[in-house]
Amino acid sequence: TLYNNANLWCWIAAYPSTCEDNSGRDGDIPCERGKNAWLYRWVIYYGPILLMIVVVTGIMIMLTRTVRVEEKRTIEMQTEIRSQMSSIEHMPPTDVTEEQPHRGSPAPTALWQTHRYERSRQMLHQAVFYLGVFYLTWLFVTINRMYQLVT
Which residues share a beta bridge with 71? Predict the structure, then answer.
């Protein structure tokens, strides 16, 4: 069996706790159970946690960059459409019966220019908050397990 006393509760550990296992730790006596407990800890617990931390961080970075690129493309298209619309407004009317836009009304450029990359900033804040909570969730448990690994 791999489950033995591990300070606070039962977990993957060698028995007795002062035994000599295959990790190179010196001990008074040979282990009765859990001789490769350190290896199983890495394969079953530490490895997947570290992998998920790296994967989730990478996904959030990619997601944030993708949102930023798409928002930049959208802003460029909006700018191009607005410049085309303003050039159309300055052309003489071709059909008298066709309703023309109000030429005297100001273009709403101030509002859309002040909110540039607003979605990217919101996405970045959400990603940082999510990662912070994710790291905080695993921080203390991992510190405890690393402490047990060292001692």
Answer: none
Q: What gap in Å lies between CA 27 and CA 34, rounded to an integer?
A: 14
Condensed to tens digits (0 to 9), the pLDDT of residues 22-59 reads 666 677 788 888 778 888 888 988 899 889 999 999 99
* Distance between CA atoms of residues 149 and 28, nearest Å: 18
Q: What is the pTM of this model?
A: 0.65
Nearest to 135 by CA among 55, 53, 51, 61: 53
For 23, the token pair is: 């990790």
Q: Is the peptide bond before 16 cis (omega within 30 degrees of 0)?
A: yes
**Residues contacting 95, CB < 8 A, separation 6+:** none
How would you classify the pairing of strands 29-30 and 19-20? Answer: parallel
**Dihedral (C-alpha) 83, 88, 90, 91: value to the nearest 10 degrees?**
150
